[in-house]
Amino acid sequence: MRQLSLVARDAPLASTAAQHETLARLALPREFPDALRTAGAWPLTPAAVATLQINVGKLCNQTCRHCHVDAGPDRTEVMSRETMAACLRVLDAAAIPTVDLTGGAPELNPHFRWLVEEIAARGRHIIDRCNLTILTTAAHGDLPAFFATHQVEVVASLPHYRALNTDAQRGEGVYEKSIAALKALNAVGYGDAGSGLRLVLVANPAGAFLPPGQASLEAEWKRELLRLHGIRFDALYCLTNMPISRYLDWLVEAGHLERYMEQLVAAFNPSTVGGLMCRSILSVGWDGRLYDCDFNQMLDLPVAGRCQHIAQFDPAVLGRRAVRVGRHCFGCTAGAGSSCGGALA
Questions:
Q1: Which distant-in-sequence residues (6+ apart) come within 8 Å of 18 by Cβ?
Q2: Phi and psi at residue 237, in whole multiples of 5°?
Q3: Closest-CA residue to 294 (of 261, 251, 338)
């Protein structure tokens, strides 16, 4: 199996419209709505919003080729403080227990710390989606202590517990920086069961296949990271690579797209549907537009209905919508399922 190279590419990504067309022209055994009908879940409707997921921008210190956000150092889309304030007004008006901050590297938004402080002051649980290497930069080296002060849960991406596999995916030196960042997080209490500071690692397959069993992989990673580096963490999330953005480009380039999509469709698991993140997460784009999930956000598929911006937030209106779905959604329901919280089944 050809390994997935996660370094910057020279050619630009296909446009969103072109990506929709690429997926649409495939001859698949069935469509996602048909699969949901067999599970008795069509149309797909949302539950109460349990997590407000805020993408604070596409600016990142890395350019990973599997990135579904198409983030990188050259991106200029960054959430304004005004839009963040609109998100805070929603928290003041609605009992949403968790706020999930993502990017890009969310820490590069100039208002990131202010936003974390404001959310913490409202007593909400905060998740930061961290690429780890950002914590080794001069301007962000104090973030582990900042996170600990505000009880932020850190969900950190790490391709593998070995250097060869990680650097092959993300570039030379990324593993060393990631390990340094994990040690800094451990030093302030992250990964210590008694500290209340939760540290989660996230891994994606390095090719056109589904992730292995999450429970067994977590045990292996905990054993090896402790043995190799004395690093402790609380959980491992195994995520399926979604056939969108840079990963879709790679599938096309490598000639794996049709086979990968057929694999996702064949592995549809109806027991994952109840836990799909689009049912309990409301995704906010950097410009304030609303989406059913982070993946729909990257495909420019806003929520259905008239409430399409965070400034228009109306839980009653949003609660009556149907979740927008497409062929990419097979990625969330294949095998054990995949979500921002890891496997579903």
A1: none
A2: -105, 130
A3: 338
**Terminus-to-terminus CA distance in the chain, angstroms?**
27
CA atoms within 13 A on the CB side of 19: 26
DSSP three-state, residue 203: strand
Separation of alpha carbons 14 and 188, rounded Å: 42
Q: What residue ranges define each of the domains in the chain, with the CATH number in brackets? A: 29-333 (3.20.20.70)
**Could you give the CA distance from residue 66 to residue 82 in angstroms, rounded to a whole number?**
31
SS3 64: coil
Distance CA 303, CA 152 (A): 28
The contacts of residue 172 (CB under 8 Å, 6+ apart) are none
- Reading the chain (345 residues) residue by residue, the pLDDT tens digits are 333 333 333 334 567 888 889 999 999 999 999 999 999 999 999 999 999 999 999 888 766 666 666 666 788 899 999 999 999 999 999 999 999 999 989 999 999 999 999 999 999 999 999 999 999 999 999 999 999 999 999 999 998 999 988 877 777 899 999 999 999 999 999 999 899 999 999 998 878 999 999 999 999 999 999 999 999 999 999 999 999 888 898 899 999 999 999 999 999 999 999 999 999 999 999 999 999 999 999 899 999 999 999 999 999 999 999 999 999 999 999 999 999 999 998
Nearest to 278 by CA among 262, 253, 305, 297: 297
Give 104's DSSP letter.
S
Angle at 127 between CA 121 and CA 132, to 5 degrees: 125
156, 131 Cβ separation under 8 angstroms = yes
